[in-house]
Amino acid sequence: MDPALSAVRLSVREAVHTLSSEDGGRIFSTLGSLKRYLGQTENPALPGEQEEFARVHFSAFLRCLVSKLSPDWLELLPDGQLEELWASFFLEGPADQAFLVLMESIEGTAGPSFRLMKMAQLLARFLSAGRMAAVLEGQCWQHTESASPLLQETLLIRVVTLPDRLGNRLQRESLAVFLPQNYFPLLGEEIVRVLQAVVDSLRGGLDCSVSFVSQVLGKACVHGRQKEILGVLVPRLMALTQGSCLWQRVCWRLVERVPDRAMEAVLTGLVEAAPGPEVLSRLLGNLVMNSRKAQFVLTQKLLFLQYRCTTPMLQSLLGYLATDSQRRPLLVQALKELLETWGSSSAVRHTPLPQQRYVSKAVLICLVHLGDAELHDSRDELLASLMAGVKCRLDSSLPPVRRLGMVVAEVASTRIHPEGPPLRFQYEEDELSREMLALATSRPEADGSLETGSRAWWWRAPPCLLSAPGQLACLTSLCYLHSDDEFVPYDMSGDQELKSSKAPMYVRDCVEALTTSENWERWEAALRALEGLVFRSPAATREVSVELAKVLLHLEEKTSVAGLEGLRQRALVAVTVTDPARVAKYLTSQFYALNYSLRQRMDILDVLTLAAQELSRPGRLGRAPQRGSPGPASQPSSAVAPAWRAVVEERIRSKTRRFSKDLGCRWVPGGGGASPECLTCTIHWILCCRPLVTFDLLGDDQLVLGRLAHTLGALMYLAVNTTVAVPMGKALLEFVWALRFHGDA
Question: Which domain of life does the protein's organism represent (predicted)?
Answer without folding.
Answer: Eukaryota
